[in-house]
TrEMBL record:
<comment type="similarity">
    <text>Belongs to the glycosyl hydrolase 5 (cellulase A) family.</text>
</comment>
<dbReference type="InterPro" id="IPR001547">
    <property type="entry name" value="Glyco_hydro_5"/>
</dbReference>
<dbReference type="GO" id="GO:0008422">
    <property type="term" value="F:beta-glucosidase activity"/>
</dbReference>
<keyword id="KW-0326">Glycosidase</keyword>
<protein>
    <recommendedName>
        <fullName>Glycoside hydrolase family 5 domain-containing protein</fullName>
    </recommendedName>
</protein>
<dbReference type="Pfam" id="PF00150">
    <property type="entry name" value="Cellulase"/>
</dbReference>
<keyword id="KW-0378">Hydrolase</keyword>
<dbReference type="GO" id="GO:0000272">
    <property type="term" value="P:polysaccharide catabolic process"/>
</dbReference>
<feature type="domain" description="Glycoside hydrolase family 5">
    <location>
        <begin position="52"/>
        <end position="398"/>
    </location>
</feature>
<dbReference type="InterPro" id="IPR013780">
    <property type="entry name" value="Glyco_hydro_b"/>
</dbReference>
<dbReference type="InterPro" id="IPR017853">
    <property type="entry name" value="GH"/>
</dbReference>
<feature type="signal peptide">
    <location>
        <begin position="1"/>
        <end position="29"/>
    </location>
</feature>
<dbReference type="InterPro" id="IPR052066">
    <property type="entry name" value="Glycosphingolipid_Hydrolases"/>
</dbReference>
<keyword id="KW-0732">Signal</keyword>
Amino acid sequence: MPTIRARLLVVLVVLFGSVSVAGVPPATAASPPGSLWFDDPAVTVRDGRFTDAHGREIVLRGYNVSGETKLAENKGLPFASVADARKSATALRALGGGNTVRFLLSWAYAEPERGQVDTAYLAAATDQMKAFLDAGIRVYPDFHQDLYSRYLFDTDSWYTGDGAPKWAVDAGNYPDESCGICLFWGQNITQNEAVKRATYDFWHNAQGVQDAFLATARKTMAYVQQHLSADQFKGIAGFDPYNEPHAGVYDSRQSSRTWEKDVLWPFYEKFRDRMDAAGWRDKPAFVEPNLFWNANLDFQKQEGGLLDAGELGPRYAFNTHFYDQKAISGVFMWGKAADGQYAGDFRTVRDRAAAAQTAAVVSEFGHPLAGNVSDKAPTVLKAMYQALDSRLKGADWWSDPAASGAVLSGSQWQWDIYNGRHRELMNGNPDKVLTTGDAWNDEDLSAVRLDGTGTPVLRQDARLLDRVYPSATAGRTVGFTYEDRSRDGSTTLTWNPVPGSLPNVQRLVGSGQYGLLLWRSDGGSAPTELHLPASFPAASTTVVSDLGAVHAPPAYTSATPVAVAREPGGTGSRRLLLTAPDSGVLHYALVTNGATAPSADLLAAARSELAAWAAKEVD
């Protein structure tokens, strides 16, 4: 088998050698790489959706960049250098198919001394953000914390944390940290008295620590806004104020729900005020509810979901995480994930955002890639991406596509090019140097690593990660599905086969991958866009739509209803563009890399089948 790097080079040769149509020059020849007239990275929340400057419904997909921020080895930055950030951004776009990153920041390094913001840290972080913005990737920063702070932990502890600076810990009088009998680091949240008390103090502004955090957040946002160009700042999608909030300790007669209402939400309102003051008024705050509101273990689950916050949009977006704790435990779920495994969990996210009249993003999801439950990863991740794409399991999709619902935005945990080659002194202990995995509490979830030549390569199946998805829909999404045909070992996972009632569509797709989008147009002139994975070179891509049926679609022009173009940023990633300047009309588009050079008769027959199916199942 060729290496991933070699396969990527082959794909890029095919792409750049086949996207032009004879006699028609690419429309973007005089523009920056991949830039077209409708490319504007600004993000707003409107009518319960993320939208762009043209009112198109957009989907933010990508990764967390990165858990390296939790470590001391690069001083709270995701990368050792801007060059590494650029390398990572290019690979994330070309190999991982991402258009957005959640960019981790560290309060400990932003404010190492009380009241003194480290502008050198902010400058380095901003320069690394630019590497992603210049690659056409949207960014939403996140002041990250886990277990409140590493400075709560002893040098010989089994665990560590990240987040608050040493001075914030020194301001409190916390007991010696101990989790007792804890099999997973997350148990420290509810069992480690030092973590619980320090967290409680933050939410109650003991010693003014919350005020200090908010002041640093405002200064950080102002710095970023002032040191990005106007075009770069457009690509900042919003800000995640606080990772995985939890009360630490509840007050007497306080519930998780009342804590969200009386403590957490007022904090978000204060953070929102700081965003406005820092020049971020037009960008949403990506607010997270109580960490345990959607836990899938009953004994962990706590009532919440910002139920009492009222209508959140457009100044807020509903932001949550989801990990399958049953699967991660190795005890509460035996076997692999199955078709539709997380449809209910992600339906809850969609419904909560809809009730709050705002957009939703699952800003963390993932599964360990090493250890005794790593065998579940191929199916768990496939089921999670399936649930992001649709409310339905694959077996039900074709019979009720209108119930598919909105396509969710999401950021997989994580994208760390240093995976397996760290040198982290755990809790500053020179006798405890961590090099394997993510170098943090025995985690190993990075989708990427560097090979022996320093080239980024995927640690997961490219068919799973680099996906077809509707990055911008000119109108309203009715339904979407993607059959990635990703592998679990040598087994191909096909959870959404084309039904036998569509024999010509079946022939067209064959054993290939396919995506199918249904949408109602909004009358705008900007096209609908679908990300095309590297496994969809133009010469092997077939599109069957009411807008046209074509094999090897041509390069984009305003007069070409079905076309391909590079994505912004010059990384070699590509998109399918579907132009339908009408309003309220149901459109469909099937994109596949199945049949080789299908005949005109097969394309016509498949188009007829899809038209009849769409009319019956949706109209």
